[in-house]
Design a protein that fits this description.
Number of domains: 1
Largest sheet: 4 strands, antiparallel
Distance between the termini: 101 Å
Number of strands: 8
Strand order of the largest sheet: 3-2-1-5
Oligomer: single chain
Shape: elongated
Radius of gyration: 29 Å
Helix content: 25-40%
Length: 163
């Protein structure tokens, strides 16, 4: 009896094993769970910053329109408060309507602010607006000086206050 030996050629199997796929998936899941809270905080900060820039832009626009039109221009909250948005009006004509992003708390003077034709506020002293994220407490403060110039600052504390 003749023994025939067949030589098998081993072909290289390419790809990943099940263990490698499970380990890679576990590492990916851990990294994703660590990055989601950081992303949420970043997103809240960006929303707060964006709403603050929008408010400063509206205040600057109202001031320039008051000087340009030689009339009183007001920035007032829409509806029940500033978190519902705000309008820029002059003589009953709405010049601008702004709606802030959701999940923010906005606080400011209930009656709004009015600019005189000189570009100054119609009330003495500084006016403070507070914009804070409800989820993180990240805060931006908009202050208007008596000359009518708005300025933006980051809140000192992350508890929703500017003072």
């Amino acid at each position: 009896m003749v023994k025939i030996t067949a030589m098998r050629s081993r072909s290289r199997v390419r790809g990943f094993t099940l263990i490698e796929i499970i380990v890679a998936t576990a590492v990916l899941a851990i990294l994703a769970s660590l990055s989601v809270p950081m992303y949420t905080s970043t997103l809240a900060g960006n929303r707060t910053r964006s709403a603050a820039y929008s408010l400063v832009g509206s205040l600057t626009y109202a001031r320039s329109e008051a000087v340009k039109r030689n009339a009183i221009v007001s920035v007032a909250p829409v509806g029940t408060g500033w978190q519902d948005g705000w309008t820029v009006t002059s003589g009953g004509v709405t010049l601008s309507l702004n709606e802030p992003p959701p999940a923010l708390a906005l606080a400011g003077p209930n009656a709004g602010v009015s600019y005189l034709p000189t570009g100054r506020l119609n009330i003495p002293g500084n006016v403070l607006f507070t914009i804070s994220a409800l989820s993180t407490g990240y805060t931006r403060c908009v202050t208007i000086d008596p000359g009518g110039r708005p300025s933006l600052a980051k809140g000192d504390r992350n508890d929703g206050s500017c003072v």
